[in-house]
Amino acid sequence: MFKAPRGTVDILPGEQAYWRYIEEKAETVCRLYGYQRVDTPAFEDAGLFTRSVGEGTDIVNKEMYIFKDRSDNELALRPEGTASVCRAYLEHGMDNLPQPVKLYYFADIFRYERPQAGRYRQHHQFGCEAIGEASPMLDAEVIQMALEFFKSLGMTQFTLQLNSIGCKQCRPDYLQKLKEYYAPLAPGLCDDCRARIVKNPLRLLDCKKPGCQAAAEAAPKSSEYLCEDCRDHFDALKTYMEALKIEYSINHRLVRGLDYYTKTVFEVQPLEGGSQSALGGGGRYDDLIGELGGKPTPAIGFATGLERIVLNLKDQGIEVPEQKKPAVFMACMGNSAKIVALKTASDLREAGISVIVAAGDRSLKAQLRQANSVGATYAVIIGDDEIKEGMVTLRNMVTSDQQVVDPEELKRILGTQE
Q1: How many angstroms separate the Cα of 69 from the Cα of each of 64, 108, 364?
Q2: Residue 64 in contact with residue 77, Cβ under 8 Å?
Q3: pTM of the model
Q4: Residue 343, number of CB atoms within 10 A of its CB
């Protein structure tokens, strides 16, 4: 018997209320902040991600799903959302629009990693990108938007962590200091971190293994090596955050897992769970558009995994609105009644009333049990007597009250209840 591949899950009808709730709140927040939706392909030229995400990252080295199509093109399933949005920004000339261009997306994300709670090989992401503005005021607004999204879900048990990782001008000096610090510690590091000392020293601070975390805690801090522009940007951001009364803590080890980040990086973490269970995060990526072939264009964004949010909603006991139940269950006895039931259901649906029509030849009692199980408010019963009189029986499934009504009157009664 076939099963879902390891690291993937089926989102069954009983879970859909959480997903619709999250999506509705996300779209509301995006509307309030002036973001418009964009949808990009599930796969892209693999080079888009190796260039943007970075060849020294775990995503590129270990986690990307790469394949060749029949034309021998090397493609990759999307491992993150920002690069595709930036590609669309360039391809469709959005740099000619008033800046910043504010875009949001819902996307399936694919990474070959060890499955765990809230982290799957195919997961779903909500993200926002603001492209074309360098002001730290936009950083503050994007961070505020992310926090407002989580709050709108009813979530309060989280913290905000903030850092600046510098830019092309000041980061090389900082990376050299990291190499010098880590070189004598190499024997005690994991295999990945020993390789990172040479290939990607910034990732050393992001390792989740206990032995490496101890070394990272005492490592040089990026904030001590910022150039004047990066330092001014970070100071201004903190001023805006204070003006917005946004509480945060500085985490000098926060670097995020993608190479395109510059200056501001931030992460929203639950009070319990630590960095491996982050609700979401993001940062500035001022060089990415240029690296993809466009003119230098500053940008900032954030993203969050929907599975991780669902997990936290459940952990925090946050109830979400139930999905709307069908208004009417159409019960019918006999072949003639089935024809009348289909016609009646069609008329009701045209009037915007949701209807489930019983199929098969079960007893009336069994059909009414089904009406209860699907949560229908009313049952419309059609049998030989109803057909003979040109009427239907309307049963209130909550009170068990029944009345015989004309089909046209039925539409009016049900229409006032929807």
Answers
A1: 16, 20, 55
A2: yes
A3: 0.89
A4: 11
